[in-house]
């Protein structure tokens, strides 16, 4: 099939590369001429494991191309995905749909044959209805249909998620559209991927409801972690005991400094706003969003408390800036709140992240950036692990201790065993667990 994808951001690039790898012919469109030129030169603007090789191989096989010319991409397309950004509006917290609607209008003016126009971007309930009206106002000569097909991609595992999905949700109102969308995903049928058809409004809401529920699981276990610290229990064992119940499951029950990224903060707030507008307030999600914001600030206070309540003039090493490993995304990352609080309290922050430093530097030019974890901790009064990159899971603790002024390790991702760290002579704090010293005093 000939497929057009509007938007060369994270979702557009992953979708385009994977669909091209299935054998479809893909034209990816972006208004940013510099980005398009870089993509055509083989320079991938985001970090996602395996994406660069996938893009380059499909460009080489002439199944994937990049252009700024939307009309040329739409002219022969059977399906057109809208995969532009829907950032949070600063004024009211609603999703900003201006790029979605502008793309829909441009598509409507460019259509030369019947095509299915699909929203891949995460959009509030009712967006497909509005796109339907925008396209109808353009009166394309051969008609069109509108579908909703939300993405469920985890940053750091997006290619596998696309090729081996838990489910594919498609909102469509007629049999022809469902047939065309089935053909788009036909290469996946050998994997028995569940293709779920529903109406567009339900499809749009599924995405928000799924992300809100996962954010709720994260927030729940974080609060349980606080209780574990208060009563002397172990949150990792609690989470495992919960997760062995197959009604609950083990995923997203890892205590830490709170969720971030491009989806959960934005999508929970958009769902909250939708509920308020419709007179159906989402009170659980409202609490989740509020608690998560407080969580990040509480982690900063935890770090300061570990430094005897005063970090002024002290060097604090921060490992991990992205909101999760295997991505370069720092949007709403816990590290932002933690670094800000440390700076506000007079600390000298030195940071290291395998892929997040270029983006972080745009927000924090004044902090120091290291070339590796060991340079980062040199002369530090405390080490804070904020992101659980694999490269941080087996650090040479003897070397780390020797490089620090005071051996204080605050492990906000619980990636080390307390007894191991304490045995190396560290003062160790984690999330929802007691250190051996603390246990001995109990």
Give the N-to-C terminal Cα separation. 66 Å
Round the Cα radius of gyration to an integer and report it: 24 Å
Strand order of the largest sheet: 3-2-1-4-5-6
CATH architecture of the largest domain: 3-Layer(aba) Sandwich
Q: If you average the pLDDT, what whole number results?
A: 94
Helicity range: 40-55%
- Look at the structure and give the CATH class of the largest domain: Alpha Beta
Which class of secondary structure composition applies to the elements? alpha/beta
In brief:
The chain has 442 residues and is an alpha/beta fold. Helix content is 45%, strand content 13%.
Description:
With 442 residues, the chain is α/β, with parallel strands linked by helices. It folds into two domains: 2-198, 3-Layer(aba) Sandwich (Rossmann fold), CATH 3.40.50; 233-441, Rossmann fold (3-Layer(aba) Sandwich). It contains 18 helices and 14 strands. It has helices at 10-21, 33-40, 51-60, 70-75, 98-110, 127-138, 158-163, 175-184, 200-231, 235-243, 264-277, 283-306, 334-344, 357-363, 373-377, 397-403, 418-423, 436-441; strands at residues 2-6, 25-29, 64-67, 79-82, 115-119, 144-148, 168-171, 195-198, 315-319, 348-352, 368-369, 382-385, 408-411, 427-429. The strands form three sheets. The chain has a six-stranded parallel beta sheet, with helices on both faces. The radius of gyration is 24 Å and the shape is elongated. Residues 438-442 have low confidence and may be disordered.
């Amino acid at each position: 099939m000939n497929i057009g994808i509007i938007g060369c951001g994270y979702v557009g690039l992953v979708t385009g590369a994977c669909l091209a790898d299935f054998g479809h012919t893909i034209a990816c469109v972006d208004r940013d001429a510099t980005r398009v030129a870089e993509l055509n030169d083989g320079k991938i603007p985001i970090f996602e494991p395996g994406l660069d090789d996938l893009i380059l191989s499909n460009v080489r096989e002439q199944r994937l191309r990049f252009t700024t010319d939307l009309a040329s991409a739409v002219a022969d397309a059977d399906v057109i995905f809208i995969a532009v950004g829907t950032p949070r509006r600063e004024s009211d917290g609603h999703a900003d749909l201006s790029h979605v609607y502008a793309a829909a209008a441009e598509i409507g003016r460019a259509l030369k044959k019947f095509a299915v126009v699909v929203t891949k971007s995460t959009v509030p309930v009712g967006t497909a209805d509005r796109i339907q009206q925008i396209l109808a106002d353009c009166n394309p000569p051969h008609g069109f249909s509108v579908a909703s097909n939300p993405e469920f991609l985890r940053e750091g595992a997006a290619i596998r998620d696309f090729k081996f999905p838990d489910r594919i949700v498609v909102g469509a109102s007629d049999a022809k559209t469902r047939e065309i969308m089935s053909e788009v995903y036909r290469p996946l049928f050998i994997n028995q991927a569940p293709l779920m058809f529903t109406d567009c409004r339900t499809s749009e809401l599924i995405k928000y409801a799924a992300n809100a529920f996962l954010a709720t699981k994260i927030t729940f276990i974080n609060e349980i972690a606080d209780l574990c610290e208060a009563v002397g229990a172990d949150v990792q064992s609690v989470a495992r005991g919960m997760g062995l119940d197959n009604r609950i499951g083990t995923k997203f029950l890892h205590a830490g400094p709170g969720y971030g990224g491009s989806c959960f903060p934005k999508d929970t707030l958009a769902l909250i706003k939708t509920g308020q507008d419709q007179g159906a307030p989402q009170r659980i999600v409202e609490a989740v969003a509020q608690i998560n914001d407080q969580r990040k600030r509480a982690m900063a206070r935890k770090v300061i408390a570990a430094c005897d309540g005063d970090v002024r003039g002290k060097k604090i090493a921060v490992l991990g800036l992205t909101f999760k490993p295997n991505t370069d995304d720092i949007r709403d990352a816990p590290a932002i709140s933690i670094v800000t609080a440390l700076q506000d309290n007079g600390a000298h922050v030195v940071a290291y992240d395998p892929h997040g430093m270029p983006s972080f530097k745009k927000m924090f030019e004044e902090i120091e950036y290291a070339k590796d974890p060991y340079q980062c901790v040199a002369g530090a009064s405390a080490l804070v692990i904020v992101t659980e990159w694999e490269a941080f899971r087996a650090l040479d603790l003897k070397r780390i201790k020797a490089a620090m002024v005071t051996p204080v390790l605050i492990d906000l991702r619980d990636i080390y065993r307390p007894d191991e760290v304490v045995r190396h002579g560290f003062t160790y704090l984690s999330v929802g667990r007691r250190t051996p010293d603390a246990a001995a005093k109990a």
